[in-house]
Design goal:
- The protein is mainly α and 204 residues long.
- The chain has one domain.
- The protein is built from 9 helices and no strands.
């Protein structure tokens, strides 16, 4: 059995589960399409807690995603394949997606870039973020828009980028300077709000 056959066999193994366990299809469809909004909201909440370590983590995670996304686009120039629903018959396609190069999975790169970074910085219960990223990767196969190799490559690219960024970027002086500069700009922008709150408190 060659690589292509293994890739298709693994895809069928996961995607066909949607035909057998139809009650799970709405769950995996939701994860595949809308879990990205939960990630975005979580990133904003963590950032605006105004904790320096948390902001460093978000900054590194964002740089990780940018690097991993660029690496993914470059790798996509060397190997291409359409989505399973465009190449195979009898695919359990659950969400709408335009036909294009599905290698590697951008969703997987996004989630693993952030979730692996969260785990590297926090460890402990942060492994739940990795479990979420795994669910997203599986969901992209379940709904019929990615092959397992698309997802696996996205994981490997994200892992390499996350580890490299984690061990390099926090040590750079420019990283601290960027955060300090941002915080100064933020203080200037939010100063009127602080003053208005202070005046209201005095009135009481």
């Amino acid at each position: 059995m060659d690589f292509s056959e293994v890739n298709i066999a693994l895809f069928r193994l996961v995607n066909d589960l949607g035909k057998e366990y139809t009650y799970l299809n709405p769950v995996f469809s939701f994860i595949a399409e809308y879990m990205v909004f939960l990630l975005a909201l979580s990133v904003l909440i963590i950032w605006f807690r105004r904790d320096k370590d948390s902001r460093l983590m978000i900054l590194c995670a964002t740089i990780t995603f940018i690097c991993a996304f660029a690496m993914g686009k470059i790798s996509g120039e060397f190997y291409k394949n359409y989505q399973p629903f465009a190449e195979l018959s009898n695919v359990n396609k659950l969400i709408e997606k335009e036909k294009d190069n599905s290698f590697p999975s951008d969703h997987t790169i996004l989630f693993f870039s952030y979730c692996l970074s969260f785990w590297l910085f926090r460890r402990g219960w942060s492994f739940l973020w990795i479990m979420l990223a795994v669910l997203v990767g599986i969901s992209r196969i379940w709904v019929g828009v990615h092959y397992p190799f698309d997802v696996l490559t996205g994981i490997l690219i994200s892992f390499a980028a996350a580890v490299f960024i984690y061990f390099t970027v926090p040590k750079l002086s420019v990283t601290g300077n960027i955060l300090k500069m941002y915080e100064k700009c933020e203080d200037i922008l939010f100063q009127p709000l602080k003053k208005s709150k202070g005046n209201k408190t005095k009135n009481y």
